[in-house]
Backbone:
């Protein structure tokens, strides 16, 4: 059991510490029933040689006594490297976990270090890693120790008296194996807190973003930069009151030019009447940030238009960050004749994907994206995940590729970068924690070192080498029932629990192998989190090129002794370095009786009862047999109790797994719902598009149809006008023709008056048949040529036609007049025929009658009155 205290470098991938969270609120005195404590810390064992150097001794074992319920659960005992009880300070944790040693390794040998916290939600992980407004966390203390230790050997990309050190940035970029984008802190902060930062603010307003960074959570009210007590017109934005002068830190050196001086004017402008403006001195930076973030739906606070945009909360001052605990005593030795550079990078693992926390948000001035995804990207709701992969320069180990790394010249710059990155981290309020981390946060401090060159302009600059100190704030495991999470927060919880389950499996392998003394085979490739945590735990495979020692890893397990028993016991079960199950022994009746019998104790009055006397008559052999049997039964009973206890534990685990599975199902359901929804939306879009196209086509067709109709109408209108015109013209023409013909007729009449009509008629008598018709004569054509050549006949026929077709429409008349002589004759003949047909019932006149008529006609002609013929 005590192997938890034994250092076993071969098998231990993590040194595991337990930290207990103090109660946030003091217990209420009039509380009816104080719950029995279920987490009992065993007092530390007598001081060993190992502990002699330390002033304090820390316990190493904790016992979990299941709360009294109907189930008889086993008592479990867990062993850790050290246990920090409720009263342990941040400094205790920093010192006793060996974080300082890890920093020293990074600084001197380039060996990577890793500090991570693991625990149930609300158990104090973020508090340990990032601290609060009054206490610094391990991250701040690590940065402070590092910068103090490096001292003047640090290379700063920006110096007030020198131009930007481009050589530093380019050489760091060239030596970086992760295809990172290396920026100076000045450039980064400048870009983050200038115009482009509005987008960051707008994204920070989303409920997913961190409401209040753990560094700044607390009651203390922070002042705005412009509200220094003795502020002149301009105030330095970065104040360094607490930094000792022995580090030679020049204020101007750490103050980026663009943020060095700010006017002492109010930072917040009243954006609407509803949201009254408050003087900056009363409105702390983070309170404002929180209010903006917590009310994303309030358009009155932040408006979309650039002109009405509320100004971004200004850059916080390092002096407003907590300055304690002081870590001045932890100064490490840095390599002589070397220069150092410190690069800070931050990323989070959210839903098993890696996102850079320092990458610039999209500028609000950027042109709006056409696609929905593009627009979402622009809004900052979607971020591009990064890959954890091998690169050209890192073939033997995976790195997070494409990160943004910020070169920090001082602790204050690093603080500003850290705070800026934290505003990007995802947090949400849950039933268990008002500011709960919804992602695993990785804060990486890269310390680069190279031999110092004697003066600038050296022919070949040596390359940078170094190690990384990673500080990880894991998201907490939680039960949906307790956390009261729903929707996306529930989905996040499912992913968090899943990744923590894989982490638990890896840690379990470590603890099992440690107990068995075997080499652990850690299944760390199951998810991004375990890959990131464990991939550096093994010596580099490529010994020839880069013989990197495995990282020095520290795991701090946090637990709330007043929290959820089941969740805490599960975390402890897989994280503890050693575990022991014990069953509480109830003294059995048999052993009590036997004990009494074998000892042969007298009764209360000192005398043996008859029963006792009777028992004494048992033979010794019988008694021995009975005793053996009782012992056997007792052992069996104990064995069964242990088995029962183990079964109980298994059942609890199964229950928890079931719960996790249920949560996963919930997540899956959520995902499926979201997928269905998006698919439906897509289909709706498609259908809408199809309908729109069809409507447009229909519209075009309709327009074409109407155009055609209009064209036809137009044409028709033209034709009728033309016809009108042409008919008038033709009427004129025909009238003229008629006149001509009449003139000709008159001329012919005159001519005929001068000549004998009989002579003339003789020549054509054969050609003309005079048929008697009701009311007049009808000339029947026998030869067309005769009609054509004889104008008289033609005129006769014309007169005949006019007379016959009398009563028809004038238009028809015109048509008749217009036709050629042949047509005219035909018409005449047809008319004649029709008339003849009309007269068919009448009897044809006898030939003698015809002859008589002819004679009469001839007589008429002879009398010289042709008009009478008609
Ligand atoms: N050692 C401590 N001393 C004082 N307060 C603490 C301590 N540990 C935690 N707290 C307080 O408890 C609350 C929850 O802590 P914290 O946010 O660090 O939990 P967490 O484990 O990070 O939760 P989550 O996993 O949900 O992010 C905070 O208000 C924090 O200040």
Residues:
């Amino acid at each position: 059991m005590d192997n938890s205290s034994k250092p076993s470098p071969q098998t231990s991938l993590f040194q595991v510490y337990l930290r207990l969270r103090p109660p946030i609120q003091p217990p209420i005195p009039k509380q009816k029933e104080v719950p029995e404590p279920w987490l009992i810390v065993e007092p530390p064992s007598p001081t060993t040689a190992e502990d002699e150097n330390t002033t304090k001794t820390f316990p190493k074992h904790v016992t979990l006594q299941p709360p009294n319920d109907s189930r008889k659960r086993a008592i479990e005992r867990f062993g850790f490297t050290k246990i920090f009880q409720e009263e342990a300070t941040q400094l205790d944790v920093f010192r006793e976990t060996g974080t300082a040693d890890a920093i020293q390794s990074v600084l001197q040998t380039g060996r990577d270090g890793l500090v991570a916290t693991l625990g149930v939600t609300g158990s104090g992980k973020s508090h340990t890693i990032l601290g609060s407004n009054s206490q610094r966390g391990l991250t701040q203390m690590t940065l402070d120790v590092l910068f103090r230790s490096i001292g003047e050997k640090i290379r700063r990309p920006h110096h007030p008296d020198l131009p930007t050190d481009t050589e530093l940035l380019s050489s760091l970029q060239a030596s970086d194996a992760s295809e990172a984008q290396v920026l100076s802190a000045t450039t980064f902060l400048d870009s983050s807190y200038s115009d482009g930062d509005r987008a960051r603010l707008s994204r920070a307003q989303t409920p997913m973003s961190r409401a209040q960074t753990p560094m700044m959570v607390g009651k203390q009210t922070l002042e705005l930069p412009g509200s220094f007590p003795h502020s002149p017109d301009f105030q330095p934005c970065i104040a360094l009151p607490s930094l000792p002068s022995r580090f030679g830190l020049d204020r101007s050196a750490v103050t980026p030019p663009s943020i060095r001086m700010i006017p002492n004017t109010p930072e917040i402008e009243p954006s609407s009447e509803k949201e009254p403006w408050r003087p900056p001195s009363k409105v702390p930076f983070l309170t404002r940030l929180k209010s903006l973030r917590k009310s994303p739906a309030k358009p009155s606070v932040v408006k979309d238009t650039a002109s009405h945009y509320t100004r971004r909360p200004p850059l916080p001052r390092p002096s407003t960050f907590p300055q304690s605990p002081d870590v001045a005593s932890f100064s490490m030795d840095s390599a002589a004749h070397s220069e150092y550079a410190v690069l800070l990078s931050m990323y989070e693992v959210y839903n098993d994907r890696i996102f850079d926390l320092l990458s610039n948000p999209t500028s609000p001035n950027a042109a709006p994206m056409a696609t929905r995804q593009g627009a979402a990207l622009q809004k900052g709701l979607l971020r591009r995940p990064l890959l954890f992969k091998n690169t050209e320069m890192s073939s033997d180990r995976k790195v997070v590729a494409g990160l943004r790394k910020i070169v920090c010249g001082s602790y204050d710059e690093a603080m500003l970068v850290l705070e800026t990155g934290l505003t990007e981290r995802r947090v949400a309020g849950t039933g268990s924690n008002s500011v709960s981390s919804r992602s695993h946060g990785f804060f990486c401090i890269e310390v680069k070192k190279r031999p110092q060159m004697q003066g600038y302009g050296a022919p070949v600059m040596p390359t940078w080498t170094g190690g990384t100190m990673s500080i990880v704030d894991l998201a907490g495991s939680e039960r949906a029932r307790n956390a009261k999470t729903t929707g996306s927060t529930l989905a996040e919880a499912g992913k968090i629990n899943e990744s923590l389950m894989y982490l638990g499996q890896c840690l379990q392998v470590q603890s099992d192998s440690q107990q068995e003394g075997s080499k652990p085979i850690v299944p760390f490739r199951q998810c991004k989190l375990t890959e990131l945590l464990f991939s550096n735990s093994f010596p580099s495979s490529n010994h020839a090129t880069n013989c990197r020692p495995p990282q020095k890893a520290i795991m701090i397990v946090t637990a709330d002794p007043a929290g959820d028993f089941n969740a805490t016991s599960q975390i402890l079960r897989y994280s503890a370095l050693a575990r022991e199950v014990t069953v509480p022994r109830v003294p059995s009746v048999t052993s009590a009786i036997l004990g009494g019998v074998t000892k042969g104790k007298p009764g209360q009055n000192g005398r043996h009862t008859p029963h006792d006397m009777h028992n004494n008559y048992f033979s010794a052999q019988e008694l021995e047999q009975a005793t053996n049997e009782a012992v056997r039964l007792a052992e069996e009973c104990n064995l069964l109790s242990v088995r029962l206890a183990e079964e109980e534990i298994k059942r609890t685990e199964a229950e928890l797994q079931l719960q996790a599975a249920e949560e996963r199902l919930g997540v899956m359901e959520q995902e499926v719902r979201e997928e269905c929804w998006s698919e439906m939306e897509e289909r709706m879009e498609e259908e809408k598009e199809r309908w729109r196209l069809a409507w447009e086509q229909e519209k075009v067709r309709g327009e074409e149809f109407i155009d055609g109709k209009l064209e036809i109408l137009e044409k028709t209108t033209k034709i009728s006008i033309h016809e009108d015109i042409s008919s008038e013209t033709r009427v004129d023409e025909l009238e003229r023709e008629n006149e001509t013909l009449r003139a000709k007729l008159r001329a012919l009449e005159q001519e005929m008056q001068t000549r004998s009509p009989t002579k003339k008629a003789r020549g054509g008598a054969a050609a003309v048949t005079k048929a008697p018709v009701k009311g007049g004569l009808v000339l029947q054509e026998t030869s067309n040529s005769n009609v054509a050549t004889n104008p008289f006949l033609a005129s006769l026929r014309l007169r005949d036609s006019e007379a016959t077709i009398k009563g028809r429409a004038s238009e028809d008349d015109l048509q008749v007049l217009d036709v050629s002589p042949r047509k005219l004759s035909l018409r005449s003949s047809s008319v004649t025929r029709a008339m003849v047909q009309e007269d068919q019932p009448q009897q044809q006149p006898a030939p003698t009658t015809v002859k008589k008529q002819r004679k009469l006609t001839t007589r008429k002609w002879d009398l010289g009155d042709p008009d009478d013929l008609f």
